[in-house]
Amino acid sequence: MDDTLRADFTRMMAKLAPPAERPESDLRQDAPTFHRNAQAILEALGPRLRGATPAVLMEIGSGTGQHAALLAGLFPQLEVWPSDPDPRRRAGIEAWRADLGLANLRPAVDLDCAAPDAAPDAAPDPVGVV
User: Fold this and answer.
1) Whole-angstrom Cα distance, residue 59 to residue 80?
2) Is 91 exposed, middle or buried (0-12, 13-18, 19+ CB in 10 A)?
3) How far apart are CA 5 and CA 9, in angstroms?
4) Confidence class of residue 40 from pLDDT cuts 50, 70 and 90?
5) What is the 3-state secondary structure (H, E, C) of the chain?
6) Closest by Cα among 101, 99, 68, 97 to 83
7) What is the radius of gyration, based on Cα positions, of the chain?
8) What is the pTM of this model?
9) I want to staple 93 with a disulfide (CB 3.0 to 4.6 A). Which of 6, 29, 65, 110 is the partner?
């Protein structure tokens, strides 16, 4: 990871760590696994995403939405579509979208890949799926 990407990563990680005390109305969700895995995921995907021309990336099973938000924040040329079948998770993703204001982080899609007719209604055909 080069110095510029490392600095951007550090900045985004700080934004994606909600304060310990927050009102119940704050729907942003936080997962310890995000904080443990974010750097490894970035090291694996970063080289491919850094040089990507404008592209669409869909994350399957976004959970808290923190990984999708991180990738959107680090790679503004990507249109990042999070997805999750759980409406509470999608609400949390929407809260992160509102908090971060990233134009390339799209609304969470209701997608259950275990369903026999799984197909996202609201997302374009993705170029990359994670």
Assistant:
1) 7
2) middle
3) 6
4) very high
5) CCHHHHHHHHHHHHHCCCCCCCCCCCCCCCCHHHHHHHHHHHHHHHHHHHCCCCEEEEECCCCCCHHHHHHHHHCCCEEEEEECCCHHHHHHHHHHHHHHCCCCECCCECCCCCCCCCCCCCCCCCCEEC
6) 68
7) 14
8) 0.88
9) 65
31 token code pair:
């997962």
Q: Across all residues in the chain, what is the average pLDDT?
A: 89
User: Nearest 10 degrees: CA dihedral of 26, 28, 30, 35?
Assistant: -130
Q: What angle do CA 53, 3, 42 make, to 5 degrees?
A: 55
Structure tokens at 109: 């899609």
Cross-strand partners of 82: 59
Tokens (6 digits) for 32: 């310890």
CA-to-CA dists, residue 50 to 7, 73, 82, angstroms: 14, 12, 19
Looking at the predicted structure, is the pLDDT value of residue 126 above 60?
A: no
Handedness of CA 41, 36, 80, 108 (dihedral sign): positive
Buried b (16+ CB within 10 A) or exposed e, 37-67: ebeeebeebbeebeeeeeebbbbbebbbbbb
Assigned token pair, 41: 């995921």
